[in-house]
């Protein structure tokens, strides 16, 4: 923490507990921008990951099952499917199955991998399986590659000790 963006390790922050005391305004703004970017892609990643799961489990993804699994209305799903089509992540026709494009499959696999890394990490910490799966649903979108790699290292080292 000596790059000028964060408070030096040997100095206590000026305001006990205040997050902004640990970094410059520019660094804090960059962190908030990163979170906003993650929020922008979160729903897209959730949809393509679920579509991939449905295709892999049953050979097809249908809007009605997406509604059921996400707990949203058919109008919400239809709107998102249209958006995913515009982004060239899925192909779909009314009253037919939804299919991932190659790019959509790649996004789904990346999201799925992130999800599994976080679940394994949380399990290694002793978190219950139910909670680990639930918490991973949000964390997968907000962890940097550096953090995910650290989670993998921790999980691997923890599994070697058993």
Task: Provide the fold topology.
Blueprint: H1 25-58, H2 63-70, H3 74-86, E1 90-92, E2 98-100, H4 102-124, H5 129-139, H6 145-160
Antiparallel strand pairs: 1-2
Helix-and-strand structural type: mainly alpha
Number of domains: 1
Radius of gyration: 20 Å
Question: What is the assembly state of the chains in this entry?
Answer: single chain
For the biggest β-sheet, the strand order reads 1-2
Name the shape in a single word.
globular
How many strand units? 2
Tally of contiguous helical segments:
6
The sequence of SSEs as H and E is: HHHEEHHH
Named at the architecture level, the CATH assignment is Orthogonal Bundle
The CATH class designation is: Mainly Alpha
Instruction: Identify low-pLDDT runs.
Output: none
Distance between the termini: 34 Å
Portion of residues in helices? 55-70%
CATH topology value: Arc Repressor Mutant, subunit A
What would you give as the CATH superfamily?
Winged helix-like DNA-binding domain superfamily/Winged helix DNA-binding domain
Strand content: under 5%
Average pLDDT, all residues: 85
Report the sheet with the most strands, covering strand number, pairing sense and barrel closure. Answer: 2 strands, antiparallel
């Amino acid at each position: 923490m000596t790059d000028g963006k964060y408070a030096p390790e040997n100095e206590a922050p000026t305001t006990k507990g205040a997050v902004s005391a640990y970094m410059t305004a520019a660094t804090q703004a960059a962190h908030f921008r990163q979170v906003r970017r993650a929020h922008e892609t979160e729903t897209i990643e959730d949809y393509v990951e679920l579509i991939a799961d449905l295709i892999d489990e049953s050979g097809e993804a249908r809007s009605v099952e997406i509604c059921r699994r996400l707990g949203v209305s058919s109008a919400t799903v239809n709107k998102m499917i249209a958006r995913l089509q515009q982004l060239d992540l899925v192909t779909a026709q009314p009253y037919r199955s939804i299919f991932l494009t190659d790019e959509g499959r790649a996004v789904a696999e990346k999201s799925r991998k992130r999800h599994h890394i976080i679940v394994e990490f949380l399990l290694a910490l002793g978190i219950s399986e139910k909670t680990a799966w639930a918490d991973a649903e949000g964390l997968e979108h907000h962890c940097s590659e550096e953090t995910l790699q650290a989670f993998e290292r921790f999980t691997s080292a923890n599994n070697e000790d058993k």
